[in-house]
Amino acid sequence: MSKTILVVDDSLVSRMMIKAIIVSHAEGADIIEASNGQEALEKFGSQKDIDVALIDFNMPGMTGLELISELALRMTIPKVALLTANIQNEIREQALAAGVTFMNKPINEEAISTFLHN
């Protein structure tokens, strides 16, 4: 059974890079992308399960943590990573408190591969 992986980032370049890494490390994955939190919510509603989510923190409209909270009201996502160049301890602590893996940007292949396979 293939996994459904959600990638949410307002940067098209970041989404493309993340998707390319996922394709090389999670063959057959169904990759759904969105450019912001609202688009992600519209794509999923409560109709589909997500196995893995990689979500940018800084996006227009709502932060990645706000999106993660909204998605948690609708479904259980076993693995969630918050991607950010914002390395403030407060953001890291909020992510950890939410049970989310914190990943520093720029993202690299090793970090995503490790996250997908652990």
Number of domains: 1
Return Rg in Å. Answer: 13 Å
From the coordinates shown, what is the CATH architecture?
A: 3-Layer(aba) Sandwich
- Order of helical and strand elements: EHEHEHEHEH
Helix content: 40-55%
The chain-level mean pLDDT equals 91
- How much of the sequence lies in strands comes to 15-25%
Q: What is the terminal separation in angstroms? A: 18 Å
Summed up:
By secondary structure, this protein is an alpha/beta fold. Helix content is 43%, strand content 21%. The chain has five helices and five strands; from the N terminus they run E-H-E-H-E-H-E-H-E-H.
Ordered list of secondary-structure elements with their pairings:
Layout: E1 4-8, H1 12-25, E2 30-34, H2 37-44, E3 52-56, H3 64-74, E4 79-84, H4 89-97, E5 101-104, H5 109-117
Parallel strand pairs: 1-2, 1-3, 3-4, 4-5
Description:
The protein is α/β, with parallel strands linked by helices and 118 residues long. It has a single domain (4-117), classed as Response regulator (Rossmann fold). The protein has helices at residues 12-25, 37-44, 64-74, 89-97, 109-117; strands at residues 4-8, 30-34, 52-56, 79-84, 101-104. Helix 1 (12-25) links the parallel strand 1 (4-8) and strand 2 (30-34). It is globular, with a radius of gyration of 13 Å. The model has no long low-confidence stretch (mean pLDDT 91).
